[in-house]
Design brief:
The structure is a homodimer of 146-residue chains.
Chain A (H helix, E strand, L loop, with lengths): L11 H10 L6 H11 L5 E3 H10 L6 H14 L3 E3 L7 E3 L5 E6 L4 E6 L4 E3 L8 E14 L4
Bound molecules: manganese (II) ion (MN) (2 copies) and zinc ion (ZN) (2 copies).
Chain A binds a DNA duplex (30 and 30 nucleotides) through helix 2 and helix 4.
Chain lengths: 146, 146
DNA sequence: TAAGCTCTTTAGAAAGATTCTAAAGTATTG
DNA sequence: CAATACTTTAGAATCTTTCTAAAGAGCTTA
């Protein structure tokens, strides 16, 4: 288990610590977002969805703040962005290297742990470049036989 | 070499045939786009870029028509869409299964032929689903040593 | 070739996601 | 508490993509 993984719900004080640890102020909005994002296992979520969850939870927060914080969390390494759909961004609370199933039907992501899938025989990289990440998206849809 | 591959520049009459073959009318705009897309080897291109290339080539065409035709060509199997950047769509004239290098620096795509890269040990799919495609994006950036 | 039909193109409006601006609010430090 | 720096926010702006509705072009048939 890597240092950043956490399988049990996180207490509010821990969430504040986690925010402070990346040099951000634990505002009411930030704590609420951290709670929605990190309290209860890994999540893959869009800005709009997170916004509506926050409003549902009774937290008054603007969409601009959602975007600000998603980007700040991403820069801080608490989130990563997953590109699977050209029309919206997904943010992933699992920042360990891993891949994804993408359910085309409902726009949902599911983790594939790094060890469960191997990419091999990557050809020589173009000159002067290095790998910054490898993303594998297995796009799946409802199967019609069976 | 699969049937759809073509290594030599395509003549205008061939382009018309190709458009007719997928039950579309060979309009001036469509022929011009087909020429830009299919005349000279594989391409990875955005709508805006294709639009400006068409205008540069002296073809009066609206951006709506670019989008209409990119989608019609994609539906017809002459193009595929590659999702690598959450802010814009790329269209690929290579419709054979293959993967990509993505140069993060300049937003450029480069093919990795299917045979040059292997994805193995894909875990069991979620119940009732089948694979619709597998996309591997190797994101690369300028390397700072060397 | 003309008529009629269908498909295509287009300008401009609209939509949807994301970012920006600038002003008010809040956390932190001294 | 005061000063400072960071944060939030409404609303405007931006950007890409899609839609609308009307004019234009290709195709078929007579
Ligand atoms: Mn699309
Ligand atoms: Mn972004
Ligand atoms: Zn994930
Ligand atoms: Zn390609």
């Amino acid at each position: 288990m890597t240092p950043l993984e956490h399988k049990r719900p996180m207490k509010k004080a821990d969430l504040e610590d986690r925010i402070r640890a990346v040099d951000l102020r634990p505002t009411k909005q930030r704590i609420a977002l951290a709670e929605l994002l990190f309290s209860d296992g890994n999540r893959h979520i869009t800005a709009e969805k997170l916004h509506s969850e926050a409003l549902d939870a009774g937290v008054r927060i603007s969409l601009a703040t959602i975007y600000n914080n998603l980007h700040q969390f991403t820069t801080a390494g608490l989130l990563r962005e997953v590109v699977v759909d050209s029309s919206k961004s997904y943010f992933d609370t699992n920042v360990d290297p891993h891949h994804h199933f993408f359910h085309e039907q409902n726009g949902t992501l599911e983790d594939i742990h790094s060890g469960d899938l191997t990419v091999s025989n990557i050809p020589e990289l173009p000159d002067g470049t290095e790998i910054s990440s490898i993303d594998v998206i297995v796009r799946i849809s409802p199967d019609n036989n069976s």
